[in-house]
Specification:
By secondary structure, this protein is of the alpha/beta class. The protein has four domains: about 15-110; about 115-220, Beta-Lactamase; about 230-390, Reverse transcriptase/Diguanylate cyclase domain (Alpha-Beta Plaits, 2-Layer Sandwich), CATH 3.30.70.270; about 400-655, TIM Barrel. About 50% of the residues lie in helices and about 20% in strands. The chain is built from 20 helices and 22 strands. The strands form four sheets. An eight-stranded mixed β-barrel has the order 13-14-16-17-18-19-20-21, surrounded by six helices. Strand 3 and strand 4 form a beta hairpin. The longest helix has about 70 residues, at about 45-115.
C-alpha cells in the first residue's frame, strides 16, 4: 500500500463532518420538539408536562448547538473565500510583476543587441528576418528595416549569395556554420568578417530558425599577416629565411627570361663560430648581408638559408646595355674577400658562389635555385673561393647525388647495409691488433658503393648520425657475442662524425656499459682530424666522457685537415692514424720523411700510438717501419673483407699463430 498522505476514497473532510453534525443536531432537535408536543397532548398530570418541558428544553439546546455549528461552518467558508481571494491577489501581483519583468527584459535585450557594435540577426526557417540589430541595419542594409524581409530584398548581391548558401547549409546539417569573408561594401573600405550561424531547435527537434552574428576581424587579419611576415624573416640579417625563400619560389613558378640566382657560402664559417662563439658569427653574417645588399638592387630578393649560406635573385633590366650584373658579381666576390671587423680585430674570409641564370640554366626560380646549389657544390669541390657557373653536365651529377641520398635512406630504414672489416697489423710480428669497421652500400646493380661516395652526402643531409649509430650497434653486438661465447674479442674501430659526438651517443654507450661493461674495452672510436672543431670545451668534455667509459679514441686521417699538432696534448686521443697522403709520397721524399718522423717522435713523447693508413706497397711499408711506425693498415696486408669472412680469417690467423 501507499503509505504517503493524501486524499483517500471514503474519508470525509472537516467541513463535511461539520455539515453532517449540523444536520444530525437539527434532526435531533426536531425529534425532541415533536416528542414534547406529543407528551403535552397526553393530558397526564405532572408527568406529561414535565417530560414535555424537558423535551422542549433539550430541543432548544440542540437547536442552539446547531446554530453554533452553522456559524462555524459559515465562518470557515468565509475564511476559505478570503484565502482564495488573497491567493488570487498574490497571483495577480506576480503576473503583473512577471509581465513588467518581461517588458523590462525585452527592452534590455533590445537595447543590448541594438547597441552591439557588430551585426546580429534572427531569421525564421524561410529566410525572413525576425530580429535585426541597428548595426546590421546601418552597415549592411543601407538603413532599411529588414524585419519580415529576405536577404535578396535588403542585402547586396555578394552578401545575398553568401548568406543564402550558408543558411541553407546550416538548416540542412543542423550544425553551426563559420565563415571568414572579405567584404567590399559601398562607400566603405574592405573589411574582414567572421560570420557565424547557429540553428535554433524547437519542438520535436525541428529547426525553426537561425541566429547569426558577424565579428569584424580586420585588425586580427592585419596582425596575422604581420606575424606571418615576421616568421619569414631571418632575425640576424633581416633577409628572408628558408621559409620565406620557399614562398618566393612558389610565387615565381612561371617562366622568367632574365633572372639570376646566386648561392653564396662563407668558407670555413664553422671555424669562426666554434672558436669565437655565436656572437662573432652573427657579426660576420651581418656584415656579409650588408655587402650583399649593397651589390643588389632594391627589387632583388635576398635570403639567408643556412648557418653560412645566402641565396640572391638578381633581376635584369629593360635595356640590355644597362645590365651590369657580370660586373656586380665580380665586384661582390672581391668585396666579400675583404677583411671583416669582428670585435676589435679584422679577419679575412673567402666565399664560394654558385651561379645560374635564365633561360640557359633554368626557366623559373625553383630550377635556378636548384642549379645554383649544384654549382656551389662544385665550387667547393674544386677548392672554394670562386664563382662557379652551373653547367648542364651537372644535371646527371645532381641526379646521382639524389639517388645516393635515397639509397642511403632506404638502406638505413631496412638495415640493408654491409659492414666490412680491415685489419690493423703490427708489421714486426704480423699480429692483428684491431679491425676497422667500414660501411658499404649496395648499388642498383648490386655493386658496392664505398664510403668516399656517400659519407659527405650523409654529413650534409644529417643521415650520418643514423649511420654512425647503426655501425656502433653492429660493432658492439659482435663484441658482445664474442664475449658471451667465451672468445677473446678483437678490438673493433668505428668511425664517428663530429655530429655524432653528442649527448645522445654518450647516453647510448653508457647504457651499453651498464649492461656489458667489458664490451667497451674492445671498442675504438675514430674521429676525422679535419672535422675537429676549434676551441670547444663541450666537445673536449664529451671525448673525456668516452675515454672514461674505457673506449679507445683515435684521430683518423691526421694531416687531411690542418694537422695541428698543438691540439694533441689537449685532447684524450690514444691513437693517431696518419692520412695516406703522407704515406704515398714517403719513399721518394726526404722532406716528407722528416715531417712524418717529427710527428712520430712527438706522438711517442706523448704516449700516443701512430698508425700508418693506406700503406699499399712494400716500399711504403719499409719507409714507415724505418721511421719507427710499426702499426700498419692498408692493402699491403689486406683489403677490407665482409664481416663474416673477416672474423673467420682473423680466427684462422690467430689459431695459426698459436
Amino acid at each position: 500500500m501507499n503509505s504517503k498522505s493524501g486524499p483517500v476514497t471514503g474519508q470525509k473532510t472537516p467541513l463535511a463532518k461539520k455539515l453532517g453534525l449540523m444536520v444530525g443536531l437539527g434532526f435531533c432537535s426536531g425529534l425532541l420538539l415533536a416528542l414534547a408536543v406529543w407528551l403535552l397532548s397526553l393530558n397526564i398530570p405532572m408527568l406529561s408536562g414535565m417530560l414535555g418541558l424537558l423535551s422542549t428544553i433539550g430541543s432548544l439546546a440542540l437547536l442552539v448547538v446547531t446554530f453554533r455549528v452553522y456559524a462555524a461552518i459559515t465562518l470557515s467558508l468565509a475564511q476559505n473565500d478570503q484565502k482564495h481571494l488573497q491567493n488570487a491577489l498574490v497571483q495577480a501581483k506576480d503576473m503583473l510583476d512577471t509581465s513588467k519583468q518581461l517588458r523590462d527584459d525585452h527592452v534590455l535585450l533590445q537595447s543590448v543587441y541594438n547597441n552591439l557594435t557588430f551585426p546580429v540577426w534572427l531569421k525564421d526557417r524561410f529566410g525572413r528576418y525576425l530580429v535585426v540589430n541597428q548595426t546590421m541595419t546601418n552597415q549592411w542594409c543601407d538603413g532599411v528595416d529588414a524585419k519580415g524581409k529576405t536577404d535578396t530584398e535588403v542585402l547586396n548581391a555578394q552578401l545575398d549569395e553568401v548568406f543564402t548558401a550558408s543558411d541553407q547549409q546550416a538548416l540542412t546539417t543542423g550544425r553551426h556554420q563559420v565563415l571568414e569573408l572579405k567584404m567590399d561594401l559601398t562607400g566603405q573600405p574592405s573589411r574582414w568578417y567572421r560570420i557565424e550561424r547557429h540553428p535554433l531547435v524547437g519542438e520535436n527537434e525541428a529547426i525553426v530558425g537561425i541566429l547569426g552574428f558577424a565579428i569584424d576581424i580586420t585588425g586580427y587579419k592585419a596582425s596575422d599577416q604581420q606575424l606571418r611576415a615576421d616568421q619569414l624573416i631571418d632575425p640576424v640579417t633581416q633577409f628572408a629565411n628558408q621559409q620565406g625563400l620557399r614562398q618566393f619560389i612558389d610565387d615565381h613558378d612561371d617562366e622568367i627570361d632574365d633572372l639570376w640566382c646566386l648561392h653564396v657560402d662563407i668558407d670555413h664559417f664553422k671555424v669562426l663560430n666554434d672558436s669565437m662563439g655565436n656572437a662573432a658569427g652573427d657579426q660576420l653574417l651581418t656584415q656579409v648581408s650588408h655587402r650583399l645588399k649593397h651589390h643588389s638592387k632594391e627589387d632583388d630578393y635576398l635570403a639567408r638559408v643556412g648557418a653560412d649560406e645566402f641565396v640572391v635573385f638578381w633581376y635584369g633590366t629593360d635595356v640590355r646595355s644597362d645590365d651590369n650584373r657580370d660586373e656586380r658579381l665580380n665586384d661582390l666576390h672581391l668585396q666579400l674577400n675583404q677583411p671583416f671587423s669582428i670585435g676589435e680585430s679584422s679577419y679575412s674570409f673567402t666565399v664560394s658562389i654558385g651561379a645560374a641564370r635564365a633561360p640557359g640554366h633554368g626557366l623559373n626560380a625553383n630550377e635556378l635555385h636548384q642549379h645554383a646549389g649544384v654549382a656551389l657544390f662544385n665550387a667547393k669541390k674544386k677548392g672554394r673561393n670562386q664563382v662557379h657557373w652551373y653547367h648542364s653536365d651537372y644535371e646527371d651529377q645532381a641526379q646521382r647525388r639524389l639517388r645516393k641520398a635515397q639509397m642511403l635512406k632506404n638502406a638505413l630504414k631496412h638495415q640493408d647495409l654491409e659492414v666490412h672489416l680491415q685489419p690493423r697489423i703490427d708489421c714486426r710480428s704480423g699480429e692483428i691488433l684491431a679491425l676497422e669497421c667500414l660501411a658499404r652500400l649496395k648499388g642498383e646493380s648490386g655493386e658496392q658503393i664505398y664510403p668516399i661516395h656517400f659519407i659527405d652526402l650523409a654529413e650534409h643531409n644529417g643521415s650520418i648520425r643514423e649511420l654512425d649509430r647503426w655501425m656502433l650497434e653492429q660493432a658492439l653486438l659482435l663484441i658482445s657475442r664474442q664475449l658471451n661465447e667465451g672468445a677473446h674479442p678483437v678490438v673493433l674501430g668505428v668511425n664517428l662524425s663530429v655530429q655524432s659526438v653528442n649527448e645522445d651517443t654518450l647516453r647510448y654507450l653508457t647504457a651499453w656499459h651498464a649492461r656489458t661493461p667489458d664490451a667497451l674495452r674492445y671498442l675504438e672510436i675514430e674521429i676525422t682530424e679535419h672535422q675537429l672543431p676549434g676551441q670547444n670545451d663541450d666537445f673536449r668534455q664529451r671525448l673525456e666522457a668516452l675515454d672514461a667509459l674505457g673506449i679507445v679514441l683515435a684521430l683518423d686521417d691526421f694531416g687531411s685537415g690542418y694537422a695541428n699538432l698543438s691540439k694533441l696534448p689537449d685532447l684524450p686521443f690514444q691513437i693517431i692514424k696518419l692520412d695516406q697522403s703522407f704515406i704515398h709520397n714517403l719513399p721518394g721524399s726526404e722532406k716528407q720523411m722528416a715531417v712524418v718522423k717529427a710527428i712520430i717522435d712527438l706522438c711517442n713523447s706523448l704516449s700516443i700510438t701512430v698508425v700508418a693508413e693506406g700503406v699499399e706497397t712494400e716500399d711504403e711499408l719499409n719507409a714507415v717501419a724505418k721511421l719507427g711506425c710499426h702499426f700498419i693498415q692498408g692493402f699491403v696486408y689486406s683489403r677490407p673483407r665482409a664481416m663474416g669472412d673477416a672474423i673467420e680469417w682473423f680466427e684462422q690467423r690467430r689459431m695459426a699463430r698459436q
